[in-house]
């Protein structure tokens, strides 16, 4: 396993297991499987409704808490200093732990300034080892960071071979903020799993398209948290540290970048209106 060192000195596994869209009833089994495969970083969120399953799985796994890197996120319905503080305690209870390793603001909507103040206090109180944001585009990232006492350690954003976040990464680098990918496979969009460039490069190394895509992100310095409910896929996604893409391969995959989202844009009025509807 490779690690990245966050801007506050905390070490974070560069490969983790994400539980977005994993049903609550399946979460404990899936996380337990991931831990047995070798994953030591688990990414969940209040909005996923499966923090309890993550907590049950790690508690029953037999591994010590300090061997595991747990991430969760404050949802926009809990935005604001008071609500966020209460939600952090609720997440700790659900995860059955005294602290989380990384806590993120899930979306840049609502009173995220108040949310971040609550997170800074949780950080100072030892309830969190590192804090950051998710889905913050460069403009909102710069805005929040300008007024924050603790610089975000991580920004988790849509990042894959078709959206490599080159501009955002330049901004994050100025603040020594680590980029983390959600959707590293673009959920199969743009015919990713049959992409001829990824297929050809992967074949050279005896690797799948998924492994090739993950390896590209890892070599680009991105933290990844692929999700699967199938053990064989978990194993496949985990075995990406035994080969290295050469410069020509990296350049060929870099050329796949469209610099556009494969899902939605936080700048689109319809998208913002949908997020606002969740706060009513």
Task: Kindly summarize this structure in a few lines.
This protein has a single domain (3-277), classed as NADP-dependent oxidoreductase domain (TIM Barrel), CATH 3.20.20.100.
CATH architecture: Alpha-Beta Barrel
Choose one word for the global shape: globular
- Number of helical stretches of at least 4 residues: 11
What topology, given as strand order, has the largest sheet?
3-4-5-6-7-8-9-10
Q: In which range does the helix fraction lie?
A: 40-55%
Largest sheet geometry:
8 strands, parallel
Count of the domains: 1
The third-level CATH topology is TIM Barrel
CATH superfamily: NADP-dependent oxidoreductase domain
Averaged pLDDT, please?
96
Structural class: alpha/beta
The percentage of residues in β strands lies in 5-15%
- As residue ranges, the low-confidence spans are none
Q: What is the top-level CATH class?
A: Alpha Beta
Can you write the helix and strand succession as a string? EEEHEHEHEHEHEHEHHEHHH
GO molecular function: oxidoreductase activity, acting on the CH-OH group of donors, NAD or NADP as acceptor
Site (Lowers pKa of active site Tyr): 73
Domain NADP-dependent oxidoreductase: 20-257
Keywords: NADP, Oxidoreductase
């Amino acid at each position: 396993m490779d690690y990245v060192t966050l801007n506050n000195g905390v070490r974070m596994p560069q490969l983790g297991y994400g539980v977005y869209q994993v049903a609550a009833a399946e979460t404990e089994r899936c996380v337990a499987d991931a831990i047995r495969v070798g994953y030591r970083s688990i990414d969940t969120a209040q909005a996923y409704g499966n923090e309890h399953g993550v907590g049950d799985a790690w508690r029953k796994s037999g591994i010590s808490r300090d061997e595991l890197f747990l991430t969760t996120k404050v949802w926009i319905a809990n935005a604001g200093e008071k609500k966020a503080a209460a939600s952090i305690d609720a997440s700790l209870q659900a995860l059955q732990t005294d602290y989380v390793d990384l806590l993120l603001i899930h979306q840049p909507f609502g009173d995220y300034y108040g949310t971040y103040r609550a997170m800074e206090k949780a950080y100072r109180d030892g309830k969190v080892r590192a804090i950051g944001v998710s889905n913050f585009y460069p403009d909102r990232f710069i805005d929040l960071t300008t007024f924050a006492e603790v610089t975000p350690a991580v920004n988790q954003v849509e990042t894959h071979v078709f959206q490599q976040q080159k501009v955002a990464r330049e901004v994050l680098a100025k603040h020594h903020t680590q980029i983390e990918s959600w959707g590293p496979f673009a959920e199969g969009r743009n015919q990713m799993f049959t992409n001829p460039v990824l297929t050809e490069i992967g074949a050279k190394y005896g690797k799948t398209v998924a492994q090739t895509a993950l390896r590209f992100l890892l070599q680009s310095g991105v933290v990844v948290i692929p999700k699967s409910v199938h053990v064989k896929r978990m194993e496949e996604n985990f075995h990406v540290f035994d080969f290295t893409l050469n410069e020509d391969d990296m350049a060929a995959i870099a050329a796949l970048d469209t610099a556009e989202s494969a899902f939605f844009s936080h700048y689109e009025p319809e998208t913002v209106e949908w997020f606002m509807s969740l706060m009513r």
